[in-house]
């Protein structure tokens, strides 16, 4: 049971990391307020089911749409402010969102908002069902990410990430693709928020604070930015850290901060990033294994389809 | 009443200016958004408190804390930021966030999570007129902030090191080729930047007579907002932005009674100003 709870938590982080990876990893837009969209989705879903009495299954896509709509706005902002300016603007967006959650009486203010567990075929969803739901969502999001990577959209985004001016001069509609990336990324985060709200049964404004955004960003950076394997690995590592280091819980944040500094200083490509030490060692092995199993080696090494 | 609010706003703005100045200087030269200088703010406040408890002399503890934090700054740039110069900007940014978390937690472990009282008796008393009260700590803060900013202005515009500084801020590689000792420039830059942040931390500790491990939280984000608003690395722009945000916050919270807290007001103002002027208040290109 305990493993299941940890698994669900990590699953939620994986979804969040994958969604931020679309914005920051693929499109190269530094978003430091991703938790705001997670929160928008969570509060939208919570209001829909707890206040309006609608179904959880309806709230799941609507939460995504709500976060996605705000994401379009942020995408529009990102057309005007770039790089460091965008990073700081998104921090601001996160602060404003949390303040709104915290000071709106309808959203429970500082008391938080209680949410009932969703019902499927007459029975309340328990932890195993939630775990299954999250696994399904992760698979769907991964498929979507692979699709993005192997499509014209993915090419355009990596062009924008590498050099915006050059991409624009090649006829890529930079504005359109940036907004698409923001919309997809924030919509996934919003739906994840709906799952989170209903799994927890209770949401509170500080669940979606800046520090959560930092955790999500750290996951994709530590795992290796711009890759699906990196986002998942990062989410697992940072999601497991509080569990593994429970016995030294007093030093947890100290270790967390230290790990971030250490990784950035010595392995900024992340553990499994394109040029990272581990991946350089690991990918030939995977390649060999794939060749032995008769898979096309080319397909295997470029798992994220960028070559 | 309006005068009182404006004065409140200016005092807050002055503290913001000092806090943000360090980060603005770092950004000006290395193009790194340095959240860790908000850690320096907390380190300064704690060092000031402990030195004051040990020596009972505010001048001594103030100077000691500033120097200590300054040396910490030079160590940080040598060990952490200089090796990261050629990385994408998000790398040092995350490293600085990590360092900030590390510092905060270290302070919590060393000094305990509770709020520590920082009471200093100042040699001058409150200054009152019919509709204006000037608290003694405010006088000190305004004087010190002005002195520090004047010192910075003097160094930047009237000395050789200031010249080297401005050259490095324009183009690090070319300045290096022209024989500017980059290491020295950057080291001094961090020393001053972190000691400014420490000074601001001690002043805020005295202003609210409390020091606590997470006291750097709000200044950290606000500081980022300020240097961005100030046009990234422009010292004049940062001071203007700091005073402006201090005033906007105080006046909006005091008069319009906006339903969001004052820290959120600062960010709403930031987002609006950035949307109108995406390059910050004082643009490099202008």
Automatic annotation (TrEMBL), chain A:
The keyword Membrane applies. The chain crosses the membrane at residues 6-28, 60-78, 85-104, 130-148, 179-202, 208-241. It is found in: Cell membrane. Pfam families: BPD_transp_2. GO terms for molecular function: branched-chain amino acid transmembrane transporter activity. One of its GO terms (cellular component) is plasma membrane. InterPro entries: ABC_BtuC-like, ABC_transp_permease, LivM-like. Keywords: Cell membrane, Membrane, Transmembrane, Transmembrane helix. It is a multi-pass membrane protein. This is Urea ABC transporter, permease protein UrtC. It comes from Sporomusa termitida.
TrEMBL record, chain B:
Belongs to the binding-protein-dependent transport system permease family. LivHM subfamily. This is High-affinity branched-chain amino acid transport system permease protein LivH. GO terms for biological process: D-alanine transmembrane transport; L-alanine transport; L-isoleucine import across plasma membrane. One of its GO terms (molecular function) is L-leucine transmembrane transporter activity. It is found in: Cell membrane. It is a multi-pass membrane protein. PANTHER family: BRANCHED-CHAIN AMINO ACID TRANSPORT SYSTEM PERMEASE PROTEIN LIVH, HIGH-AFFINITY BRANCHED-CHAIN AMINO ACID TRANSPORT SYSTEM PERMEASE PROTEIN LIVH. The keyword Cell inner membrane applies. One of its GO terms (cellular component) is plasma membrane. Pfam families: BPD_transp_2. The chain crosses the membrane at residues 7-29, 90-111, 132-156, 191-211, 223-248, 254-276. The keyword rRNA-binding does not apply. Keywords: Amino-acid transport, Cell inner membrane, Cell membrane, Membrane, Transmembrane, Transmembrane helix, Transport. The gene is livH_1.
């Amino acid at each position: 049971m305990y493993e299941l709870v940890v698994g669900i938590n990590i699953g939620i982080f994986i979804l969040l990391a994958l969604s931020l990876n679309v914005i920051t990893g693929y499109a190269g837009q530094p978003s430091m307020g991703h938790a705001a969209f997670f929160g928008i989705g969570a509060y939208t879903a919570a209001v829909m089911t707890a206040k309006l009495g609608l179904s959880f299954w309806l709230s799941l896509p609507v939460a995504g749409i709500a976060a996605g709509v705000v994401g379009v706005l942020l995408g529009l902002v990102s057309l005007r402010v770039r790089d460091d300016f965008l990073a700081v603007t998104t921090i601001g967006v996160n602060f404003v969102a949390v303040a709104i959650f915290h000071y709106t009486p309808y959203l429970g203010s500082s008391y938080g908002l209680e949410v009932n567990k969703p019902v499927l075929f007459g029975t309340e969803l328990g932890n195993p069902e939630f775990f299954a739901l999250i696994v399904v969502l992760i698979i769907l999001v991964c498929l979507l990410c692979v699709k993005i990577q192997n499509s014209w959209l993915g090419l355009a985004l990596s062009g924008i990430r590498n050099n915006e001016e050059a991409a624009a001069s090649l006829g890529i509609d930079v504005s359109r693709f940036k907004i698409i990336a923001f919309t997809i990324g924030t919509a996934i985060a919003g739906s994840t928020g709906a799952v989170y709200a209903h799994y927890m049964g209770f949401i509170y404004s500080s669940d979606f604070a800046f520090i959560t955004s930092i955790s999500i960003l750290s996951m994709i950076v530590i795992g290796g930015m711009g890759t699906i394997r990196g986002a998942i690995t990062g989410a697992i590592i940072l999601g497991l850290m509080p569990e593994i280091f429970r016995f030294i819980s007093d030093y947890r944040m100290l270790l967390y901060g230290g790990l971030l500094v250490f990784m950035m200083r010595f392995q900024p490509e992340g553990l499994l990033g394109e040029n990272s030490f581990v991946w350089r060692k690991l990918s030939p092995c995977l390649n060999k294994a794939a060749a032995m199993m008769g898979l096309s080696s080319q397909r295997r090494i470029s798992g994220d389809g960028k070559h | 009443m309006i005068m009182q609010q404006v004065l409140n706003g200016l005092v807050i703005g002055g503290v913001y200016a000092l806090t943000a100045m360090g980060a603005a200087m770092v950004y000006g030269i290395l193009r790194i958004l340095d959240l860790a200088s908000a850690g320096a703010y907390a380190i300064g406040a704690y060092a000031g408190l402990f030195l004051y408890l040990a020596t009972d002399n505010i001048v001594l503890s103030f100077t000691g804390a500033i120097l200590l934090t300054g040396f910490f700054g030079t160590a940080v740039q040598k060990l952490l930021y200089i090796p990261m110069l050629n990385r994408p900007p998000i790398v040092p940014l995350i490293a600085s966030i990590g360092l900030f978390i590390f510092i905060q937690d270290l302070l919590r472990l060393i000094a305990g999570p509770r709020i520590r009282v920082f009471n200093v008796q100042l040699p001058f008393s409150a200054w009152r007129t019919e509709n204006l009260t000037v608290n003694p700590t405010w006088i000190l803060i305004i004087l010190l902030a002005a002195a520090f900013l004047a010192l910075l202005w003097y160094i930047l515009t009237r000395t050789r090191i200031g010249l080297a500084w401005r050259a490095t801020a324009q183009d690090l590689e070319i300045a290096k080729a022209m024989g500017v000792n980059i290491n020295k420039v950057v080291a001094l830059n961090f020393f001053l930047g972190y000691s400014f942040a420490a000074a601001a931390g001690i002043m805020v500790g005295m202003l609210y007579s409390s020091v606590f491990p997470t006291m750097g939280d709000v200044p950290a984000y606000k500081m980022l907002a300020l240097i961005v608003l100030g046009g990234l690395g422009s010292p004049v722009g940062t001071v203007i932005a700091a005073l402006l945000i201090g005033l906007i916050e105080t006046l909006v919270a005091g008069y319009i009674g906006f339903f969001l807290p004052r820290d959120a007001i600062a960010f709403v103002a930031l987002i609006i100003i950035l949307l109108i002027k995406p390059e910050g208040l004082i643009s490099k290109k202008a």
